[in-house]
Amino acid sequence: MPDKIYLDLIQLIKKYHPSEDFSMIKKAYALAKSAHGAQTRKSGEPYIIHPLAVAHLLAELELDKESIVAGILHDVVEDTSYTIQFISDEFSKEVALLVDGVTKLDKIPYSTDKEEIQAENYRKMFLAMSKDIRVILIKLADRLHNMRTLKYMPEHKQKKIAKETLDIYAPLAHRLGISKFKVELEDLSLRYLHPEAYYNLVEKIARKRDDRVTFVEDIVRDVEIQLEKVDIKAEVIGRPKHFFSIYKKMVGQDKTIDQIYDLFAVRAIVESVKDCYGVLGVIHEMFKPIPGRFKDYIAMPKPNMYQSLHTTVIGPEGETFEMQIRTYDMHRTAEYGIAAHWKYKEGKTSQTTEQSEEQKLNWLRQILEWQRDMSDNKEFLDVLRSDLDIFADQVYAFTPSGDVIDLPAGSTPIDFAYHIHSAVGNKMVGARVNGKIVTFDYTIKNGDRLEIITSQNSRGPSRDWLSIIKSSQAKSKINQWFRKQFKEENILRGKELIEKYSKAKSIPLSEIMKPALTQMIQIKYGFKDWDSVCAAIGHGGLKEGQIVNRLYEEYKKTNNHIVKSNDEIIKDVVDTNGIKSKQSKSGIMVMGVDDLAVRFSKCCNPVPGDEIIGFITRGRGVSIHRTDCSNIINLSELERHRLIEAQWQSLDVKQTGRLYQVEIQIIGSNKTGLLLHISKVLSDEKIPVKSLNARSIKGDKSIFNVTVEINGVEQLSKLSKKLNNIQGVEEIIRTNC
């Protein structure tokens, strides 16, 4: 049976493919058949039938041989021991890229409850599509065959997969213009999500079928006769509307099936655009058109490049029906979408075809641009859902020069401005519609002519605009503007939020912030540096918990923690170092231990008078920290076993004669001479200064970071009081903690 399906596949490919060399496809079939071996599907049939069916669907779209081969091999890496590298070596890097893309998509878990996971899955999908659009074509074919065989799955999985299909894959097929796949995916989803409604609909339409078929056949015959009279060659056919579109209309308009008359549509396919409008004239002469029900998608194509004339008319018996008129090329595009004019490597394409393909890919590029700009998974998910909404109506408006702009229904002049260019939206101060000034929240109507008024003195968009605009594009660009304007503040706020969250969850901040770990996060979320990650957290685009938890997970993966008792840890340290130093040298006494090396932590710089605690390191003795040090507070439960009590051997600074480095931050006004006053206090107090850095921040503030040497908390407190007495000093903070 598989061999017969394979031979049928080759015959189908031969009908459209210019090459006679099918050796690569034959080799792929042999490998897949061998690799899947005795594997079977839930239906009990050999597993190899599934990849062959996927390849057959791709051949129906008339895709190239590389796509067919990838379709045959798409589950080999996922379900067998073969690797992507093997596929690349045996076939080509191009085939390996396609297989790898689909393999990754198959690993995406779908969840209706965990939006963060769902959003990341969307991101993975579009990144795979960005490498090669054929990835999603293969995945759509894979999903369609899975839906055709869904009856063998348990009921809960049927509903889960059907919901995913209706939410993601059917809208994707629609967006890419592949009506052939979209219609069947929708109908099959309806069958499993709402089986009672589906079978009820099937039964009722079947009862009406005979009457409706006769009605449509009469219409088709009459139209053919009239077109022959005016010498227009056309293929006229009647077709039933698919179940999901009828169900959607019944639910959306709260009607019964008896109240819906256009269960069938009549379609005329002609040679030229001129003939399309000629057929329209004949139809409107034969039947009375219903006002407001004519749509010209030839002059104004849909975003997925669908073109056709639609008109709803009243038939000879008073019943309404829809007439669709298009060229053969438009019909092919409507059925196959992005795959309609797929470019073979062997052939050349015209500039017009290439431009058409570029237009079809504009939407995908827009999604990828959003993906880069939006670090907030929830925001990205909301925008994507909105843009994938297959039920969303469009409104068409004109620029002053007469160009057509299509926008979501309910759009405002702000949406229009950002559709033209982000610079136009950012400098917008007003708008005229049909020559009259309108408010920003004006709802654009079909046929409106808009003129956007801009000014170089504009302060930029208002946050209030986000509540009135409709298009995803405008929302993305406005949010992007705010992120750029306040990047510095967002970076600082992001770092504060990370530290605060880590402290609350007792996660070791110093450990998870290692460059190797932060770089993994940058790559995962597509940021160029760590500051960009912090900025995203600062403006609310990313959740600090999401980032910190991911860092901590990676940290735990790369550090195999073994929980030991204090005695065991101390023994390890002593055994490793062979240390025999006395505690009096450091001025620190570690409880219960006489001969451990002691060093002061640079993260918090403890000084005599501070409450302290020891942390037993791996191979470097005991590190002394302040008890309020963020690194101690944020220790994980696994690390807390390494803490040990410690105290100052003597608080008599004269006895020890030792100095300790401390960094303080002085925040004050941008007053001239403030630095001079600070330096004078330090000099008068005879405080050794190791470093001093000053900078201005937005507004009228200055920040001075000063590293000094002191003998203890008492001297630090005295210094702080002196500095606080300087006019213009607002706050003094002990840093490094």
β-sheet strand percentage:
15-25%
- What coarse outline follows from CA principal-axis ratios? elongated
**Total count of domains:** 6
End-to-end span in angstroms? Answer: 71 Å
Number of strands: 19
Tally of contiguous helical segments: 31
Measured as a percent range, the helix fraction is: 40-55%
Describe the largest sheet. Answer: 5 strands, mixed
CATH topology of the largest domain: Hypothetical protein af1432
CATH class of the largest domain: Mainly Alpha
CATH architecture heading of the largest domain: Orthogonal Bundle
Q: Could you tell me the radius of gyration in angstroms? A: 35 Å
Q: Could you name the CATH homologous superfamily of the largest domain? A: Hypothetical protein af1432
Task: Calculate the mean pLDDT score and round it.
Answer: 80
